[in-house]
Amino acid sequence: MEKRVTFNERWLPYLLVAPQMVITIVFFFWPSAQMLFQSVVVEDAFGGNTKFVWFENFTSLLKEPAYYDSVRVTLVFSFLVAAVGLALSLLLAVMADRIIRGASAYKTILVWPYAVAPAVAGVLWGFLFNPSVGTVSWLLHGIGIDFNYVTNGNQALILIVIAAVWNQVSYNFLFFLAGLQSIPKSLIEAAAIDGAGPGRRFWDIAFPLLSPTGFFLLVVNIIYAFFGTFGVVASLTQGGPGQATNILVYKVWNDGFRGQDLGGSSAQSVILMLVVILLTVVQFRFIERRVHY
Prior knowledge:
By secondary structure, the protein is an all-alpha fold. The chain folds into 2 domains: about 10-50, no CATH class; about 55-290, Orthogonal Bundle (MetI-like fold), CATH 1.10.3720. It is about 70% helix and about 0% strand. The chain has helices spanning about 10-40, 55-60, 65-95, 105-110, 120-130, 135-140, 155-180, 185-195, 200-210, 210-230, 230-235, 250-260, 260-285; strands spanning about 40, 50. Strands 1-2 form a two-stranded antiparallel ribbon. A hairpin with an 8-residue loop joins strand 1 (about 40) and strand 2 (about 50). The two termini are about 30 Å apart.
């Protein structure tokens, strides 16, 4: 017989869902509504003297050269974080999936970085690459590489990419490892009997079967690169040197809280949200076609 869960009280399902709905309304819908309202008004730092200006905040923002520089940096940064993070995580998952001695210890160590907050990750990598006392900077200097992210914009961008990828690699690793372990071993063994080598077995069997997991992680990593890396930038480079690492999510905070341009900051938030939504729709519209469920 098939067992089904039944609720004797009609209000019980709504009561169970209510806490999540309250959290979603308070921490998502209400801030989003405030953001949309503030994007079309001009007000002082204390929320007074509010003046409705329609789309002037957006037109002023689109005339600002620094905003387009931030867009360019964000696109490069997001692409590198997603591409490098997914490739590295997949490599680690494939290595950890092999039956080797001490595999459990390796898997545990690879999961630890996810427990570190982005701001802490930025501080850790900033200390390692500190041009004065950093161990890694000292080693690089010993082989003739002068790494100084404080004054070199390209090196600063590389460093925040490294910190962001390191902080996210455990999340990707867990999903890729679970995906690899869910592949029937009989398929891999049959291919091995037919004479397929390890590389051929991975690309022809394992990799296509990992496409749903890879597609999910691609969406998650794009969103992470746009929104979840604020702590890394804020604690490591603060958008510098110059504007070399001034990604959009940090620029929103910097203009709103430091510059007290609440209207312009809200307009940036609206555009950033729309861009991420558009990227997600494009991924589901075109990339998902290549996913084999």
